[in-house]
Amino acid sequence: MTMLARSALRTVRPLGAAARNAASRTATRSASTSSSTAEGTASSWKTNALPAGATLFAIGSVAWYYQMFGRNVDAMTPAEEGLHPTKYPWEHAKWYKTFDHASLRRGFQVYREVCASCHSLSRVPYRAAVGNFMTVDEAKALAEENEYDTEPNNEGEIEKRPGKLSDYLPSPYKNDEAARAANNGALPPDLSLMVKARHGGCDYIFSLLTGYPEEPPAGAVVQEGLNFNPYFPGTGIAMARVLYDDLVEYDDGTKATTSQMAKDVTEFLNWAAEPEMDDRKKMGWKVLAISSVLFALSVWVKRYKWAPIKSRKLVYTPPVQSKILTKLPQPPNKS
Amino acid sequence: MGITDFFSAAWDTFSVPSPDAEAPVQGGSSTKTPASGTDEESKDEKEVNQKDAKSQDDGEQGHKPGDKDEEEEEEEEESVDPKDTLEQECTESKECSPAKHHYDECVERVTGQIESDGKAKEDCIEEFFHLAHCATQCAAPKLFAQLK
To answer: Residue ranges of region Disordered (chain B) (predicted)?
Structure first.
């Protein structure tokens, strides 16, 4: 490329010079006879045609290549891709912060009163709530509100018993098919790991819950039975907007605005997806503290052990030399 | 008393007590009164409150308008979602004016198409995305500062 460009530059300069010469000559000598200058310019144009054309071809092919392969190519339209969720400054996402457990309690309330009618949370047992946002008695009372199958009794019959702390949260539908049948063919996904399962995590869920516009933008086609949500890939989501202001009544007196409920339930779902987060961060601090002490110690030990080796000095003191001749027996001095 | 007892006692003294221990005993041991969330107590309270209210009404007439006002205030006190107001402000801010300009223009164009041709040749989803992205990004820190 550079070679080509350089040759092109080289060709341009004499071209310009020739043109200038030709212009001045024709201006001065057009009236006179000679046609040799015209021949000269023609020949110089011919010699420059090849490199100039090659340069043009090179530039053109690069331009074509760039417009063909150099641009971003999106397989999907923005609408199909969905609007990327905005990054929100989640407090619990900071690496020195825990979950806000009051928020978890509120979020669980929102889940139980709003989401649980369609979405299961099948990987979370009641015992997980104990000590996180509920007391034992509260969790037990909650578990006992539901019935679970017993082990087969002596006649082989399976009876029902009230729930225990070790039971898992009940699902609203018996199976996926029942869920589909009840929801116009759309399956409400299990929310246990939803924060981990979706691109954007908490931001996505918060945006999805709060992002329903009053009406879809002009020209947008929303299929029947679907709702417009910019954050859902394809923008048509079967779930309608569910969170409205003052839908639930928080027992700690927090104002239940839409975004407050969405924030709480998102944080709760993040807890459901990674209940180990608080412990993990605590453990991380311990690891950092201990390993930094150990590292400092190892540096000190290394320096301690190497100090004599690094600071020693090898000195060679040659033995006192005397001339070997002096050691020979001297001839008797005759003088 | 062995040395292990000493360690367990020391642990109990200095460790955070487990949540199992601190659950308050509520209303005896029956399962009919779980810790919270039942209507029973509130019903009782309601009855008592109603009686109180009735007696008050009977006794003092001066309270009536005041009570009404209070009720109305409670009803009027609908919480407004800060997200909507903040994003509205952001949409009209200078920061998002290009996106808003494009969106408004698109809406005008598409509604014109629908009116003249009966159907839209394009949609404003992309313009809407840009506007929504700008508005939410502008509102995000302010919103989370307001939420609990």
So the answer is: 14-99
